[in-house]
Amino acid sequence: MRWRASISLTVGDGGPVSSIVESDHGSEGSAREWIERKLPRTRFPAWIPAARRRDGVELFGRVARGRIVPDQLIPTWEPEAAPVWHADRAGDQVQWRRCAADDR
Q1: Per-residue confidence (pLDDT) for residue 14, from 0 to 100
Q2: How many Å separate Cα 84 from the centre of its chain?
Q3: Which domain of life is it from (predicted)?
Q4: Residue 25 in contact with residue 49, Cβ under 8 Å?
Q5: What is the DSSP letter of 26?
Q6: Angle, CA of 14, 25 and 94, to the nearest 5°
Q7: How many CB atoms lie within 10 A of CB 64?
Q8: For residue 70, how far is the Cα from the chain centroid?
Q9: What is the pTM of this model?
Q10: Half-sphere exposure of 6 (CA within 13 A, CB side)
Q11: Which of 30, 66, 67, 95 is most solvent-facing, going by the fewest CB within 10 Å?
């Protein structure tokens, strides 16, 4: 069992989501600490113009439980159907909330 911490980007409510950085951890606490260190300092990718950032483009963190499936040419992440932690930036802090597995 692993916990995957990811920092992702979303465009508007219900818009596409793209992970920009991920890190796997042996515990939920370690994954949440990684998000708390990285998310407040994360900057938008250079390919997103400043004008677009005002159009509902958001950075957020997520911690999900799952496993690495090595049966393929490239090992893949298989999340569990369990609640996840969702993290929003609030200045230099992170605000956490528990969400259903399929929520962003």
Answers
A1: 65
A2: 10
A3: Bacteria
A4: no
A5: S
A6: 50
A7: 21
A8: 22
A9: 0.83
A10: 19
A11: 95
Amino acid residing at 47: W
The DSSP output letter for 85 is E
* One-character DSSP codes across 28-79: HHHHHHHHHHHGGG----TTS-HHHHTTTEEEEEEEEEEEEE-SSSS-EEEE
Is-contact 33 85, C-beta < 8 A? Answer: no
Nearest to 2 by CA among 84, 61, 67: 67
d(CA 100, CA 104): 9
What is residue 91's predicted lDDT score, i.e. its pLDDT?
A: 84
CB atoms within 10 A of CB 44: 15
Written as tens digits, the pLDDT of the chain (104 aa) is 899 999 998 877 666 678 889 999 999 999 999 999 999 999 888 877 776 667 778 889 999 999 988 877 888 888 888 889 999 998 889 999 999 876 54
What tokens were used for 72? Answer: 């393929």
Q: Which residues on adjacent β-strands are paired with residue 93?
A: 90
